User: Fold this.
Amino acid sequence: MDFKDTPEEAAYRQQVREWLAANAPKKREGEPDPLGESSDGLAASKAWQAKKAAAGYACITWPKEWGGQGGNPIQQVIFGQEESAFPTPGNPFQIGLGMCVPTVMTFADEDTKKRFVGPAIRGEEIWCQLFSEPSGGSDVAGARTRAERAPDGSGDWIINGQKVWTTGAQFSDFGIVICRTNPDAPKHKGMTMFWIDMKDPGVEVRPIHQMSGGSGFNEVFFTDLRVKDSQRLGAVDDGWRVSLVTLMNERLAVGGASGAGWSAFLESARQTPGLDGGAAIKDQALREKLADWYVQAEGLKHTRNRTMTALSKGETPGPESSIGKIISAVQMQELANSAVEMLDQYGIINDPSLAPLRGAFQASLMSAPGMRIAGGTDEILRNIIAERVLGLPGDIRVDKDVAFKDLPTGR
Assistant:
């Protein structure tokens, strides 16, 4: 593992620092808006995205003809590190640029790519992904939303069904959706992926009010949504293979949970009185928890450093990056819960103008359960690590060769 920049990386880091110093906002306007959900937050996010795109910093690794720099992954990492030092607006483009548009770039025809890649990278259009369903849970291949050929012989498709937990659907312009197209095939072999217009009358979006106070997740209903065959991504009934491209990008994108971290907890523990009237930091049980969180945080940091070292050498990162989301999301929940308990009566105040650290721990506590589900539940990710990292045998699948329509339901 190498912790130092190469001369080329150091030069690039300096270039990025100078550009950010001249162009990045110096202070945040209004309350933090991580997803850009408000109209003001969305406008600020689009303006910042456009500025980055004009300078080639929006998607550094993408080819120049698509608006990138044709750079390498470590340059993207360096920009992200340096950008994090500034109070930039929320990023409602993460799902589109990190998951949806790369899928479009991989499987769509040239006309489709020319139509969508430029506006997406400039922040003019926002994308969402429509995978999860009420009856499927974490089983993406259990999708029941149907896409059937239009009866008029046009070759178009008619989509009916429901998706849920779709992040950003309420302000998205387009989306990618996985549908069941062949119920006579096993569940992993009878699906097809499409891109859709989220403003189509056949699409209804209903925001879900979350216990965190936000409404970033949504239910999405499709009623006789008509899409052209040219909107298909990949071959008919080969949607699972297409979805894997999106899912792997999603795991990478949500691998680092946000929220108030252990260092913020440490600062609060120094300032918060314990049961004996002294600083809470002197409590031995609390110090043991802090030590555990510190070790976890250092482990995550150095695991990311291993990934960065591989990127710097032009290598493909190993499977060790798969553990990031499990550790960080669980730590976020445990830390927030302990912090709210430590704050005693102040822990129940969910008001940024009154609560310590502007309510950062309360916000983390309410959003942490969602982080343990988004991008794959703890259980799903542990299975992936067990089978693909540790080489343990996979679970027995009795439904592997059974037609989807013959799978038992309602039991």
Notes: Residues 251-257 have pLDDT under 50 and may be disordered. The longest helix spans residues 284-312. The radius of gyration is 23 Å.
